[in-house]
Structure prediction request, 469 residues.
Amino acid sequence: MKEEPNFEETIKNLEQIANELEKGDLNLDESVAKFEQGMKLSKMCNDILEGAEKRISILIKKDDGVTEENFNVE
Amino acid sequence: MDYKAITVTDLNKYIKDKVAGDEILNNVLVKGEISNFKNHYTGHLYFTLKDDNSLIKCIMFKSFAERLKFIPKDGMKVMVFGTVSVFERDGVYQIYCKAMQEEGMGSLYKAYEELKLKLEKEGLFDARNKKKIPFMPKVIGVLTSQTGSVIKDIINVSTRRNPNVYIRLFPVPVQGEGAGIKIAEAIKYMNDKKLADILILARGGGSLEDLWPFNEEVVARAIFESNLPIISAVGHETDFTIADFVADLRAPTPSAAAELAVTDIDELKLKILGYNNRLKLALKKKVELMRLRYEKCMMARVFKEPLQRINEQYIRIDMLVKSLQHNIINKYKDRKSEMITLVSKLDSLSPLKTLTRGYCIAQIGGKAVKSINDVKKDQEVDLRFIDGSKKAKIL
Prediction:
């Protein structure tokens, strides 16, 4: 399975790219490449945020170990 | 009969002196239940201490009240230390309290202070041992009671901040005998099985006794040894348990712990959107800058009037051609006049000229006969006249 990208690192990279691009000392080709890379990272961040699934569970101790079940707040 | 009466003031003063001279009354430790508690705006505390059969007025001045580690209230069983003295004006005696403790808490406080000092010396509270709270933990492990408002608050706050949050509750008893060991085991279990990225150890408010499991050494050690970062949220904002000191981060309330553990997803999305806009703006600016540069270049004369330079060259070529022509013509003229001179010279020397004057040239085979020795008798010669030639014979 593909290693899931780390959100913190991804958003850090995104921030760095935004800073580099804003400095403006890259040539046009480099700028476009950075821009594309940044947009890719931003999509990755969004995907991570959207991709997670809500789950509230409770760990229940039983004789043969611990099982995980959905937990509903009364 | 003459009675000698003293004044009320004298009497009260007498009693006051008596009381003041009594060593026991100067330093009393009294236990009882608080009633009639008043927190005066001046900061002084007024209350009554009572048991089933009796009561005594108490006052605690602001300077002492400020040192209290809890807020006294009616019904609370306490122990006060102070001096009994008489208030002359009203003829009442009361305890001037210098210190107060919740009754039964004395030994617990002592244990708390001792453990705190010991663990602090060992470095369990050191900032350099604190683990970083992950920015976006995937699974949030919560150690608390599965009933009650604490887990509800945590779930509510967490899901509000991130609707896709993953919370794993490991239910533990949060008060009473044996709770500490269970909490410690739970911390270890979550670590061993790597069941979370961060742990929240939480409990609602309660008395020092209720919070006691969180002041136990076994819990403190388990928190310290945990590889997972732990946020503690035990009791109210004013309660500091040993667990709070050892934890990587202390939250004042369980809700606050959830806020610290769960990143607000809307905030993040806004942040990402912000970066997107910055990227777009920066690229747009870059392109605009390049366009301006291009336009500046195109403003140069060479691009504005591209034929100018070529025309200039044409003119130059024309001029060169002209001067070349001029040169050639001059040369030609020079030569021509030179030739004319030569021709006229030649002309004057030409035999043809002589012929016009009536001479003729005798020729043999095209060669002029220059001597009589060149000819013999009967030899035919050509006589060249100006207008032609005729054969002749030597006699």
